[in-house]
Amino acid sequence: MKTKLTKITILALAVMLLFASCSNPLSKTPDTQGETASQTDTQPASEPETETTEPEKPAYTVADNLIALTFDDGPGTDSSKKILRVLSENDAHATFFMVGYNIDEYPDAVREAFDMGNEIANHTKGHKYLSKSSPETIHEEVGYVNDRVEEITGKRPTLLRAPGGNIGNSAAETGMPLIQWNIDTNDWRHKDKAGSSRTQEQRTAELNAIVDHVMTNVSPGCIILMHEIYDFSADVCEILIPKLAQAGYKMVTVSEMFEAYGIELKAGEVYRCAQSQSAAASNTIKVEPGNYVVSTASSSLNLRQDSSSNAAVLTEIPKGAAITVTESVEGWAKTSYGGYTGWVSTKYITPAQTTPAYTPAATASETYAQ
Questions:
Q1: What class is the 62-271 domain?
Q2: Domain 282-351 architecture
Q3: Element holding 216 (H helix, E strand)
Q4: Of 29, 248, 322, 344, which has the fewest Cβ atoms less than 10 A away?
Q5: Do residues 241 and 86 lie in contact, with contact meaning Cβ atoms separated by under 8 Å?
Q6: Could you give the 3-state DSSP secondary structure of residue 301?
Q7: Tens digit of each residue's pLDDT (9 = 90 or more) over 138-158
């Protein structure tokens, strides 16, 4: 009997130990979550795949005969609509330097110009001369327009034009690249005035005179200055823009043109012409033999005896003169002019324009004094 009880007791103890073992969390088989965590700790994570993307190429190249039409003082009403229509009809874009008081009055015109692919730029809040303004005023004038344009279009302006081109010593205070021009149409001088005795024939002659002035002086890389708020200026555009397109020029925004020329627009710097500034960016440009135009900022370019800035000057070549380069070394090109053969700096010559020469459609009469 005693032996039988002992066996029962041992069996009971064995069962208890078995249950105890099953209920012990330390002996429990890890669950699925535990296995996943363990595997994560012991297996290195695979490296994410990295995409190799080509850098974006400029939308245009120098070979596209690029020029930039720029319009100040807008937006306006009817004149703005006419300019935008003519641009659209000719697959052209422009840069509009807008003032704060007109932005506030015509926000829809700002949005329309932007939505059509044009560049909206800064012309200050109140059209104040920057050279006569304090740093605080400059910051307010510039910042206001940047803020308003961003509110309307979602894109903050990156370029500034000083009213009247009057910069003085204020460039650094603006915090933006400053865009000047190298062809001034002086369209504002011919705007329509109430009570003017100018005849329609005289007005037409003045329109044609401005068109002829631009077509005679334009070349790739040029920045052309006009105004957005005058009916006269819009009428100039109806004649000029189709002629520029027919002559082989591609009208793009200022930013697009400088990008094509490989020029970074920097805050506090002044820009007037993409082509001349591209050439002047390096003293070591080696050009190919061919036809070029003297594009120095001064009235003439020195033709020197040899390829050195200290060499004797043989003669001076007028700005705009056509020359033929026969050979070159870094920074210097060999050419002949006025019976002399010598060397000129490659900084101040640009390829001859590949567009057809312009022949004025009509002889303009003397400008009518208003």
A1: alpha beta
A2: Roll (2.30)
A3: helix 200-217
A4: 29
A5: yes
A6: strand
A7: 999 999 999 999 999 999 999
What token pair was written down for 172? 């650094």
DSSP assignments along 237-281, one per residue:
HHHHHHHHHHTT-EE--HHHHHHHTT----TT-EES-HHHHHHHT
Verdict on whether the full-model pTM lies above 0.85: no
pLDDT in tens, 301-317: 999 998 887 788 999 99
Note the residue count of the chain. Answer: 370
Q: For the chain, count helices (H), then strands (E).
A: 11, 16
- Going by the DSSP 8-state scheme, the letter that residue 363 receives in this structure is P
| Sign of torsion over alpha carbons 225, 228, 230, 236 | positive
Residue with the two structure tokens 């003519």: 86
Across 60-78, b (16+ Cβ under 10 Å) vs e yields: bebebbbbbbbbbbbbbee
Give domain limits for the chain: 62-271, 282-351
pLDDT in tens, 315-358: 999 988 999 999 988 889 999 999 999 999 888 888 886 656 66
β 313-318/300-304 pair status: antiparallel
Positions of E strands within the chain = 66-74, 95-98, 119-122, 178-179, 183-184, 223-227, 250-251, 270-271, 290-294, 300-304, 313-318, 322-325, 327-329, 332-337, 340-345, 349-351
Count of CB atoms situated within 10 Å of the CB of 279 = 23
Contacts of 21 (CB under 8 A, 6+ apart): 27
Confidence of residue 19 (pLDDT cuts 50, 70, 90): low
